[in-house]
Structures are given as C-alpha cells and as structure tokens.
Records
---
Amino acid sequence: MTATIRETAATAAGARALSAARAAISTVTDPEIPVLTLDDLGVIRRVEVAADGAIEVDITPTYSGCPAMAAMALDLRAALAGAGFADARIRTVLVPAWTTDWMSAEGRRKLAQYGIAPPAAKASRRALFGAEDPLACPRCGSSRTSKIGEFGSTACKALWRCETCLEPFDAFKCI
Amino acid sequence: MSEPRFILALRLADNALVLGHRLSEWSGRAPTLEEDIALSNLALDLIGQARMLYVHAGELEGAGRGEDDFAYLRDDRDYRNVLLVEQPNGDFAATMVRHLIYAAHAHPFMQALMRSTDGTLAAIAAKAEKEMAYHLRHASEWVIRLGDGTQESRRRAQAALDDLMPYADELFATDAGDLALIAAGIAPDPADVRPAFDRTLDHVLAEATLAAPRRGHGQSGGRDGIHSEHLSRLLAEMQSLHRAHPGATW
C-alpha cells in the first residue's frame, strides 16, 4: 500500500466503519492475477466514510481498456456488502495515472513467486527505440532471457522466454 | 468553447474506436498466436481510450448521451474520425503501416494533450500516452522487419506505405474550432506534434529501408463526417447487435 492513499473518517464510529471496510477491501484480489490483492496492485486510491455513512472507494484503471476493472468494482462491492456495507460507492478516477511504481514490495514478491516477472522497481521510461534490459527469469533466476512479444495474456503483461531453463514466462509491463 | 471541445473529444474517441474495431477484426486470424494476442491488446487499449473519451464528450455535450449512444446509435455521417483509421486491414503489412502512422502521431499528441487545461482530457492523455508508446514501438518493429525482410514482405510494406501515407496529413488538420481550442490551451497545436511524427517516420523508414512516398495531396474529410464506404460497412457490423436488440446488455 502506498503512502498516497487517502483514508478518512471524521468520527469514532466512522473510524470503526472505515477499519472494517478496509479489512473487507484487503481481501479483494485481481481477477486475472489472483495472488495480488488490489492493494498490492496499487489501484485503491481512496477509502472514505461519506457524510451519509456510505463507504466510498476510488479505484484507478491500470490500462484504459483493462477488462478486469469492471470485475474489480463488482468484487469490491460484494466484499463490502459482505461486511455490512450494502451501499458502497465505487468510483473510477483517472488522475493521477496508475504506474507500476505503485505496486507494493509484497506484491512484487508474490508476482515473482507466482511465476510472473515483476516490473522494475522504478518505472524507468524506456527510450522509444532503445534496447531493453533483460529480466530475471522468475523460475530459475537466470538473466539470459529474451522478449517474445510486447503483449501477453493480459493488457498488463508481456511474454518472455528464459534461454537457460527454456521456459516461457509472463512479465509485468513497466509503465 | 463547449461545442469545439465536444467535437475534439468526439473526434479523438471516434479515431480510437474505429481503429480499435479494425484491429479487433484480426482476433483469431493473425499470422501468429503472439501477434493475435498483441493485436487484441492494441484493440483493447484503443477501445478503452474511446470509452473514457465518449463519457467526457457526453458530459461536455450535456444531452445525456453515454458511450453506447455514441458508439452504437450514430450513422457514418456523424462519425468524426480521420479517414486513416477506417481503411481496411488489408494484409498484415498494411495493418502495421496504418498503425505506425497512427501511433507516430498519437504518441506525441497525447504527450502534448497531457498539458491541456481540460483536466479530464489531460488525465485520459496521461494514460493513453503510456499505451501509445507501446503501440508505436510494436508497429515500428514490425515495419522495420517487414521492410528490411524478404522481397515479398518488402514489396507489401512499400505498397502499404504508398497507399496510406496520403491519409497522414488529416491527423494534423485544424478548423476554426480547433484554433480556438489551441489558443485556450485545451488542444495541442498540430504544428508542435508534426516534428516528432516526422522524426519517427524518418527513423523507422530508414531502418526499414523503405522509401518515404512523396508528399502529395492528402485525403481528408473524415473529421467532418465525409467518409469512405469502408466506415459504413464497419459500422454495419459493429452496430448490428445493438440495432437488432436496442439496449441489449450482457
């Protein structure tokens, strides 16, 4: 979870509600990468108890066309309803634009363990036609790897291959 | 300023939707599995951008129209996309050359749009800019490989370039509404985008050993709703379900 996330509740009852909502939200995972929670991914931008007592959650899309966003909003709504917040409001915000820098260290560790090479620690903006640094293979750790395709099984991933263990692997794109 | 701003959002959305739909026509029939996935991803990015832009256009218009109204319930004359994006996919070289031309413009255009005084356009541009960098790299790599490839791939890439370059100029066209938006800091000045576009094409075509077609009279009209027959056919397919079953959801 990054430091930029806003969580506010004005009253003691509000604070209790907020912490219960937070706990419910922390159980929601990415529908396409089930080892990552939405917190790990960095898409939860704000959790607040509104004046009318409803929980408000701001999420931000990873990619403009990410089909998982609708599922994430549904899953959030279901998790909050399960925790007694039937009238939660889930809002999509575009500013600031999501970056892989917001992925937690824990998220990066879980990704690698799951077999997906995590994004580089700092979203270094590649020169448009520059060479790309090799990624470490999430299976054997070798850095003798090469990219097969700029686009992988989901919008956020590219397809790579390890020249040492010869296994293909997904890599989280760095944006 | 609301009318020109609505038209700007609509034009950008229509460009993204029409090209996104074109690319989706490759799904399941691209030359390789990796490329099939790549083309579907490119389509998804563009359709995602279109959705955000339609929502914004609807807010600017203030008539209660949403993304589906714009996508499914307008005829070709109401579409404001440039002619480039409605051109048929042709062979794989034509699809990649069309995408190179589009992305070589869209990437610097979106970078410039990030400074728009319209906060929503700037926010959409901040997402789109990152995506278009990937699109540009992907299309460039393919055009280089095809141009500097076999005799056959080179012939097809050059033919695609000769066919499609006349559509490039429309990407930089302006009308009175655009000029007002540029003056207000809402839209980027195409003159500021052109040098980056030219540099990219010079670089890629040199690497691809392809000859840049001579600059001649450009094809235009799409921005004002004057389209080729290709768009009508595209819309007929894209809108058929919604027109047969109005309001259908799934």
---
Amino acid sequence: MATEIYNGQGLAQAAPDPTLAKGKSILSRRTAIVALVLVAECFLLFANFDNAYLSLGEGNTALLGKNVLEYGYPRAWDGKNLVVPFYETTVNEDLVWVSHPWLQYYLAAGGIAVFGQTNLGARFIFALCGLLSIIALYYLTLRVSGSVRLAGLSALILAAHPLFWMYARQSRYYAPTILLMILVAIFYLKWTESLKKSHLAGFVIFSSLLFYSLYTIWGFEMLAIGVHYLLFKRSSRSMASFIFAAVAIGVLTLPFFLYAPPHFHRDAPPSPDGYLTRLIVHLWKVHTLYYPVLTLALIWGAVAAYHRLKGSGKPPSALKWRSDYWLGLSVIGYVFFVVLYPFFTTHYMLPVLPLGAIFVAFAVLRIREHSRWVAAPVLALLVSTNLFHVLPYIAVDKLHLDGPVAEAVMLNPTWTHTPGTPLSHYVTEQLALRSYAFDFLGFLTHDYEHQLRGVVTFIKENTREDQTVFVPWNDADAIAFYTGRKVGYHMETSYFKNENLKAVAPKGDDADLIVPLTFDLPARYYAGERFYSNYERIKLPFPKEYFETYPNLDFFNFRTNRQTPSWFYVFVPKKGGEAGYAENR
Amino acid sequence: MQKTDKITAGEISLTLGLIIIFGLVWMKWPVIKVSSKTLESYNLSDPNLPSWSNGIGLSLSAKPVDAPSLDAPLQPYRDLISRYNAYIVNVRIEGASYPTMIDLPYDRARLTDAAGREYRCLNRSVAEQTSDPKLKQMLEVFDWSIVNNTFTKQERLETGLLLFEPGEAPRAPLSLYLNFYHHPYKQVDIKFDYYQSTIDQARSH
C-alpha cells in the first residue's frame, strides 16, 4: 500500500506502490475491511442488550426518557414515581431534572418511542452514536493528520476498545458525547477550509448539541477551537462568520445554562482540596483502563534509542505534527479541570477515548517506523490484553518498589465514588493480567445472571400493577422503567428545602414487596422483629451481587458471579397483612 | 511512513496470530493474578479466639462456646447451645473511606474433625423452629450483607451464632471453615483449628 495523503479535498496517492494492483483493488480491499469492522462493531454494540440491566445512570436516563415522551421534557415526577434524585438540587421546584443537560433524555425517548420500555429501546440510539463515532473518528483523524493509515488505525483502536463498547452500549450521555466531540471538530475544520455556510451550520448545531450532552467538555472544546482559530485560521474573510457562530452557539446554549446552572451534592462540591490525589487517581485510571500512554511512550522511546545506538538514525516519518493537533488540548484541559469534582468515577475520563485512540495509533505507527516486528506484537497486546496498562503496577510489585514514594505517585486506579482501597490492596489482590476484550466477547455470548434481573422478573410475575415495591435506591429507576410499578426507595429528605420534592419523595419502607439489599443498614436491621412478624421471606435464586458494576470496567464481572451467595431474600407481607402479594400468587 | 512502507501479510498474520494466542490463553486462564504477596494474615495468639484479617480493615474471629462459658446475651439459650457444636463468629469492618462489604452464607460454613467427619451447619433449621426473635437474629444475621458505611466512615461489627451437628465425641482438632465473599473482589476461605485443649478450655469455663 502506498502512503495516502489527504489534501483536504480528497485522497492523493503520494507515490503509487508498483507492487500493488491498481487503486480500484486497493479501494475494494479497504472497503471490505471497513465493512468487516463495522459489521463486527454492530455485533459488539448492539448484541444482547438484555444481558445486563440498566445501571444507576442508565436507569436515570431511561426513566426520564420515558417521561419526556409523556411531558415533552425530563420531568422527575410522573405522578407515580420520582426519578431518584442524586441530591436535592438535581430536581427544581417544578420537579424538572436540572442537574444534567437534556440531550440524553431526548435520545432515550426516541429509542423508547420506537422499541418500547426495554433495554433495546433505552440503549439503541446510544449504541448507534457509538457506531457513528468510529466512522467520524476516521474522518477527523484523516483531516487532522492527512494520513489514511493513522486514521484507519485510530478508528480501529477505538472500535476495538472494550471500554468504548461498554460505554457505547449504555443509555447514558457517553456515546453521544464522543460522537459530538468529533463532529464539532470535523465541521469546524471543514469550515476553516471551505468557509461554506453548511459547514458553519454543522459546527453550530453539533456544538450546541455537545453542550446538551456534556457541557464540561463542550466548554473546553469551544475554548480550544477559539484559540486554534485565532492562532492558525484567523482571516478577515472568516472572522465575521466565526463571531456569528460563537454568538449563535451562545444563544442556543446560554438560556439552558441560566435555567439549569451546574448543581452539586451538598457534601461534595468541586474543591481544590485533594485535587492532586484525584488527578493522580484519574491519570492512573486512564492508564489502566483507557490507554497505557506511559508504557507506550517508553516502548516508543526504547525502540528509537535502540535504533539510534545501532546507528540506524531516525527514520523518515509521514506523521508530522500539524497545528490541528492542538485541538486535542481541549481533552487535556478537561481532564485537569474535571478532577475538581471530588468523585473518582472512571467514566469522568470519557472524553479521553477518541483523543487517546489517535495518540495510541500515532505511537504504534511511530514504533513501526523503527520496527514493524515490534509494532505488530505491541498492537496485538494493546487490543487484546491489559499487559501494557498494568505494567507499571507489575513493576512496583516485582521490583519491590512499594513504599511511600510509590504510594504517593501511584494510587489504586479503581477508586470510584469514594476513595478506594490502598495501593497495596490493589497490587496484591486486584492486579491481574486479563483480556477485557475477550471478557466482553464472553459476556455478549453467554447468559449473565444478576440480582437486578432476578428482582425485575419476580416483580413482573408476582405483583400487580397497582402495587408498591421498595428497592435499593441505585436500582429504583431501572425497576420503575421495566415494571411500571410504584417504586419506593430510601432517601433522606429531612434537610431538603424543596417542598415540592419533599412532598413526592418516597417515605418509609412499607411495601407490597421489599428488596432488602442495601449499603446503608446494619445486617441486623432486616433480621429484626418487625420483618419477622409482618413479612415472609422468599428466596430468589440469583447471585447476591449488587456492587454497582456495569458502568465501568473496574469491577464488572462479565460472567455470572458464582462466588457470591447464589440467592437472596425478598420480603412480602404475610397473608392477612395489608398488602396483596399473597393473594396475587 | 515511507512511501514503499506497505503493510505486509507477515505483520498482519503476526498481529492476528498473537491475538488468537492471547484468546486461547484467556480461555484457559481468564484472570492471571500477578502478585504472590498478600495482606491477609491469621492471628493465632489466642488459641481460643483465632482471627483472620484481610489487612485493610476486615477481620473475622470465631470462638467455640459451651453452655458453662456463655456470655450474657447467650445465657437464655444455654440448653439449646449445649446440644450443638456452637461457635460465636465476629465480623468486624473498620470505619474507612472505602467500602468493605461481605456475605458469609451459612450453607458454606463447615465443621470437620480430625477423623474427617463433617458436621452440618444447622442454623437454618434451628431458626425455623424457634419463635424467639433475638435467637433468630443471632442465627440469621449473616443472611444479610455486612458493610461499613463509607460516607459516614462508620465501622460495623456483627456477631452471629453458628450451630453445628453435635456428633459423637469429635476428635480434635476441630476445624471451622468459613467461606465468605468480599464484594466485589473475591471469595475467601478461612480455616480455624481448635485443638483439644482449646475445646476443653472453652467447655470448662
């Protein structure tokens, strides 16, 4: 294959390779590869949605999406159920959800309108956004780098990333954000080259949509584009249009920002306290679960140094630095900003996925310029194992580097909402060589039994639509979405100032069915007299495994957990009690 | 990239071949633990109350109990306890900023003696027969997950009573096997051995 150079208008063959057939056959081969990748990706993104049920965030999106169909906007209270407020100010006085931008709720509504209140309905459009992201990344990388090979490998690395599969399959803002980040950059760059109104319109529309998907990365992408334009693309011919675009985006986004300014948990506002610790944790999350940038850089450096020592010199490279790469600073700026928020959830680093794919592809191709026989195994290890990702931690363990210095610069990367276990626990218990890619394939092709599936099935089969169920708050939205029952959950409302919210919040835990799985109570609570006297217990034969596992790779099991207890209790009122479960059986 | 730097069939074959090999390795060993070190340890300094710790805030201990040596909360159940091989199990989770959650299912608890005889855990059947809520709670407390409160950093201490078949003159040492699941990390097997002197000691108090 010859080196293909993209000149902004189309592909130009820099120098035809005489050993290859004509361009047509190259194109057909390339088309076949692209088709194969996209077909495989369809399987990875759309197959077996029912295997894992909606996680906490997905349940929120799905239930609000259902309410969008009813009210036209994401109303938290539908007259029966209150979408679980993550904290008081997630819902305003009118009981409208205001702590997240709304695009995800409308996308979910679209899927639910077509496919119903099912996993497919909740997730379909998001997976579609994931699929389109791969195609979009190809074109963005091609435009930025001019290299078909880099563009193809970047798209392939994103398409082969198990974390990308995981996020793109979820009914949450993840895949739309990735897609829109890329589309914004593409249309901005297209406009700077063509100055066409259609490209400017695309830039304005996709920028505004990105705001409504995740406005933190939107802010940094707008900033990066503004600086990029002023430094590299400014011209008297385009300035007025650029200003118009900025104003248009402002008009399309500012009203929502004023209506629903950022809200935070009362106990966890953004704070510089602990900033460095959070930054370190998130950077190691990026390394262990997204892209092993440090290991790759070391391999790249080692290969280059080896060839320099051998006297081979620096090989000529088609991968040159271009000013458009500066747009990537938006993601880096985002990473350094978002860790002000005092949580450790892995998906906060989501915008790293597309940019990281380009970096990794770039590094692999640079390694290949030194030695293709090093690059091939590097690529294989990258896409099918986590060896490079965890190599620094393996070094700590095997070289006995654990100590105060290691503990200061290398933290456990699996911290989630709260700080996690110490580094020593990660290294001795959690650190493992594995293949998330094959794990994921196994997950897609095997039945996955889990607690939420058991609960939903039981509720559907054993309760009436007018009955009330009390469930763990983290599953409440999903259960309301799947079953349509009135769903109660534990929520502390004593400090709420929002009287409307207080009025509709669930109260107490009496119900026609109680799912007594919770993080918040001592074990003896459910072994107390009240429950012995008033309820009978029913064993559900599903794994008692209810750590919030699905949204991230950190703790997801991929296969039915056989190590945890194989059943758990639910409570139903005893016959003759107030509720009707017993009569309903 | 150089102009003639085409991707060869060898490179593609090597990459795909390695991926297939890694897939085969995964089929045999889906998770390969790296470290041979552990933070876990037993504390056997008190032979009557051996304990186990995971090194990051979780500890379990178990003590054989006999009718004469009962603590106050167990005194009302002297007759009942005298009919079984009874153990008091303590689960302690220190307050911490990270969650520790375990499940200790009764159906995985075992007691064996030196002759290899196994004594079944009878908590379920005894609990079903009693109407005493306090006793029920002591016999069923481990049906519920035990977790520290990570937001308030509160510790958690749960104590349960394990009742095993009495057997006939069990031969020391008696070995108590507890199996629990430490969410979301792993299943843990721990074993406490009680030698004759320990058992006698427990029964003579």
